[in-house]
Design a protein that fits this description.
Blueprint (H helix, E strand, L loop, with lengths): L2 H11 L1 H25 L2 H4 L4 H35 L1 H9 L4 H42 L11 H28 L2 H7 L11 H20 L2 H35 L2 H4 L4 H50 L4 E5 L9 H10 L4 E14 L2 E8 H10 L11 E5 L12 E6 L2 E11 L13 E4 L1 H8 L8 E8 L6 H11 L3 H4 E3 H40 L1 H13 L4 H38 L4 H31 L3
Parallel strand pairs: 3-7, 4-6
Antiparallel strand pairs: 1-8, 1-9, 2-3, 2-8, 4-7, 5-6
């Protein structure tokens, strides 16, 4: 058998060790290429898609994150592989392999995997970039989808960038193999393990650190959270590390003293073995817990930001299309034209509203409008808001959605037509009820009888009529907004406003940022699962010997399956549960900052998806591990 054939055969025999590493590397290459394809897309570079153009620096930053993360991830993976194969390398040396041949074998194996991952990753990236472009087009609500193309710069950057990365790591690994002595390689797998021990002081430090971090996140106000953010992160991270390296071993020691539990069925074997596994895997479990917390907090936060911005847009501009009629002749736009354009663009109208308003002045300056109580309550009902009651001689100020230096408070003296009236301002509503026009800088809601009295004194030509139209999906109203804006011309901001025109671009940027961040989090998730997968197969040979011994002393195959299932479940779910707890307190802090208790709906959805994906990863790892460990 030739040397190359032997190397490839050896690679095939170790496929169960390499599969998670290969798939994670492939996904890193694929995602790097997709980002590069967007960054170097001509339509993005020339600014044709403004949101993608503005987010382009963020995508470049994401490329750096993917590349740097891939470097450390691949370096760790290769180190884990070498550790599991030291005995194999030692035996090959005894059979006549020289160090040079071992180095050559490691080099060939890594390069075969690396070049395969790069080529397949670029091909899959090219295939999925079409779906990526379609998703971007949908997110950005562009009239024509982003055209599919394969930018040469993206292909070359991905290929040579990852070839350099894999090459450097392969050389490092080969150098480490070359430095190893034969006796060390053989003894590595036979070194006896020391029993796990813990320090009570470090356990106390873990409890104190986690308690401090959680307490600060739960009770501090906004200013305290901002000032103490670094402290919270540091003490929580420190507490997590000592929780896995010390606290978990202390907990298992406590379980051994619970005689009824410890001597029940196979509990003794499970608990005693878990002590050694936690000791060996503590750093990995710590890393996965921190990564899980980052994933959950990041995805949840960006989702909240996106939802908050979308909800905020509806508050800032209460109607998808708004037109202010000042009873002029030869108006550039009328509501019928708006309806015609919406019908042409296949936008379904949810409801329409029409409200009459009276302009008023303060100290001779145009100041705002008066709206009668019944009209406000009609709009409030359409927006599912609480109705109000206004007593004669009083008024309530409604946020107009426009910044204003003019303040109204207490007793107000208004000029309404030719009359001067006194009103008492008794309250303020923060959510706007009409679109933010210049003529409606201040909106006062007054009693219906007062309004009717003043209406008689106002010339009809001075009465303003507000028209609001709400469509079912305003994020798809970009084409209609552009067409109507062209018809209105220079009057667009004075008499005609659309929610899309004001908030649509920000929503596009937010949606695109969420999409980029989501893919980064998926990469972190795959890496975290792969770390756990690697740890399972790092001690495969030792586990196989232990289970063979258990089988010889009478432990049934069914009981061994239960032991394996529980141990794998602990390794996969323990760090995830800790990460979820971290994220819970992070969301408590986010709720404090946003002054919003509705964050939990988004958070629970994110947790559900995360646990579902983790369960899929667990089932795949368990099936593969048991198949290799306990062949039938």
């Amino acid at each position: 058998m030739k040397f190359l054939q032997l190397t490839l055969k050896n690679l095939q025999g170790n496929w169960h060790r390499y599969i998670a590493f290969y798939l994670s590397s492939l996904f890193s290459v694929m995602m790097f290429y997709i980002y590069a394809a967007i960054i170097y897309h001509p339509d993005v570079i020339n600014g044709q898609f403004r949101a993608a153009y503005f987010v382009r620096p963020g995508m470049i930053a994401a490329e750096y994150i993917v590349f740097i993360f891939s470097f450390f991830f691949i370096l760790y993976s290769c180190s884990a592989f070498l550790k599991t194969r030291k005995k194999e390398f030692g035996l090959l040396t005894l059979f006549g392999f020289t160090k040079r041949q071992l180095v050559k074998m490691v080099f060939i194996e890594n390069m075969v995997i690396s070049i395969s991952a790069i080529i397949v990753g670029i091909l899959l990236g090219a295939v999925f970039s079409k779906l990526f472009f379609m998703a971007l087009s949908n997110l950005l609500n562009v009239d024509s989808p982003i055209r599919f193309m394969l930018p040469l710069q993206a292909v070359l950057l991905t290929f040579f960038g990852f070839l350099l990365l894999f090459g450097i790591i392969t050389i490092v690994m080969a150098f480490r193999v070359g430095k190893s002595e034969i006796i060390d390689l053989i003894r590595e797998a036979r070194k006896p393990k020391k029993p796990p021990v813990y320090s009570r002081w470090l356990v106390a430090l873990a409890v104190l650190s986690l308690g401090t971090g959680y307490g600060m996140a739960a009770i501090l106000d906004i200013a305290g959270l901002i000032n103490g953010l670094i402290t919270i992160v540091l003490v929580t991270t420190l507490g997590t590390y000592f929780f896995f390296t010390q606290g978990s071993i202390a907990f298992l020691g406590w379980l051994t003293k619970r005689k009824k539990l410890y001597y029940r069925n196979i509990s003794m074997v499970v608990i005693s073995q878990m002590g050694f596994k936690i000791k060996d895997n503590a750093r990995t479990l710590f890393s996965v817990a921190i990564i899980s917390a980052i994933i959950l907090t990041a995805i949840g936060s960006v989702s909240l930001l996106f939802d908050d911005l979308k909800a905020g847009s509806s508050v800032l501009v209460p109607h998808s299309f708004a037109y202010l009629d000042d009873r002029r002749e030869n108006k550039a736009l009328v509501p019928d034209q708006i309806r015609g354009v919406l019908e042409k663009e296949q936008l379904s109208i949810n409801y329409e509203a029409q409200v009459e308003m009276l302009p008023f002045q303060v100290n001779g300056n145009n100041f705002g409008v008066l709206m009668k109580e019944s009209d406000y309550n009609h709009l409030a009902k359409l927006k599912e808001r609480t109705p109000i009651e206004v007593i004669s001689g009083q008024s309530i100020l409604v946020n107009s959605g426009r910044p204003s230096d003019n303040k109204l408070e207490g007793n107000i003296q208004l000029q309404i037509g030719n009359q001067t009236e006194q009103l008492m301002l008794t309250g303020k509503i923060e959510e706007a009820i009409i679109a933010p026009f210049k003529q409606t800088e201040q909106v006062l809601v007054v009693n219906d009888k007062d309004y009717q009295k003043w209406l008689q004194t106002i010339p009809e030509k001075n009465i303003l009529v507000y028209h609001g139209i709400e469509v079912d999906d305003w994020m798809k109203s970009g084409a209609a907004a552009t067409l109507l804006k062209e018809q209105v011309g220079n009057e667009s901001t004075e008499f005609f406003l659309t929610r899309y025109e004001i908030a649509g671009e920000y929503m596009q940027i937010s949606a695109l940022t969420f999409f980029v961040g989501f893919l980064i989090c998926i990469l972190f998730f795959l890496a975290a699962g792969s770390l756990l997968y690697f740890r399972l197969f790092t001690e495969l040979q030792e586990d196989r010997q232990q289970y063979n011994m258990l089988s010889k002393i009478g432990v049934s195959a069914k009981e061994i399956n239960r032991i394996v299932r529980r141990q794998i479940a602990f390794i996969f779910y323990a760090p995830c549960i800790v990460g979820i707890i971290h994220a819970v307190f992070a969301f408590i802090a986010i709720g404090t900052v946003l002054s919003d208790t509705s964050v939990w709906g988004t958070f629970l959805l994110v947790i559900g998806i995360f646990l579902g994906l983790q369960t899929i990863y667990y089932l795949i790892a368990k099936h593969t591990y048991k198949k290799v460990l306990l062949p039938e």
